[in-house]
Design goal:
CATH class: Mainly Beta
Number of helices: 3
Strand order of the largest sheet: 1-4-5-7-8-9-10-12
Strand content: 35-45%
Oligomer: single chain
Helix content: 10-25%
Distance between the termini: 33 Å
Radius of gyration: 17 Å
Number of strands: 12
């Protein structure tokens, strides 16, 4: 379930790096504006009941050399139910052992043209997602929009589908099912995101 979020986050970080390269070959880096950004994922229980969750904290940057890093603390998961937040952290993400997930990539900033303010482009990005002790490559389809000389928004163009089993989260999902008395919790999780980056 978590991977979707990671994936989503990965996509945003990559998009931002693309955007920075597209905007200008500047020596200044770009940083995510956490309180104006969002990463959300959907869980489906008992086959037909969908619920939307999100993360309340994140850090991300793209440096002048095109190195992209995005970090999300797993304890910041928000499901709108306190006990569920706690159970997801303890049994699914295992935050005592895996405090955060990260997304990294390297871009050649000079490979992109300058984007005009108001311009928008769609691009498929590749990233490396490190979640729950597993690192995997993730492709993201995103929109990159330059809204001002120093701000870029990266949005998912379509939901990113994440397989929780790929990140060894299956046992955690089974534990959550048992505790909540559910028949099923889907292991394929859709993730969406909207990330605002600003130039330093």
């Amino acid at each position: 379930m978590f991977r979707p979020v990671s994936a989503l986050l990965a996509s945003a970080a990559l998009a931002l790096s693309f955007c920075t390269g597209s905007i200008v070959a500047s020596e200044a880096g770009w940083h995510i504006v956490a309180d104006q950004s969002n990463i959300a994922f959907v869980s489906v229980k008992n086959g037909s009941i969908g619920e939307v969750h999100h993360f309340t904290a994140m850090e991300g940057m793209v440096d002048s050399h095109g190195a992209v890093t995005l970090t999300v603390p797993l304890v910041s998961v928000e499901t709108n139910i306190d006990i569920r937040n706690e159970r997801m952290g303890n049994f699914l993400f295992e935050t005592a052992k895996y405090a955060e997930f990260t997304v990294k990539t390297q871009l050649d900033l000079k490979a992109y043209e300058a984007m005009a303010v108001g311009a928008r482009t769609r691009v498929t990005l590749e990233a490396q997602l490190d979640l729950h002790g597993v690192t995997s490559d993730v492709d993201m389809d995103v929109f990159v929009s330059r809204i001002s000389a120093t701000q870029v928004i990266v949005n998912s163009a379509q939901p990113v589908l994440i397989d929780a089993d790929e990140f060894d989260l299956g046992a955690g999902i089974e534990k959550l099912k048992e505790i909540a008395g559910l028949d099923s919790i889907g292991v394929i999780v859709p993730v969406t995101f909207s990330l605002l980056f600003t130039q330093s």
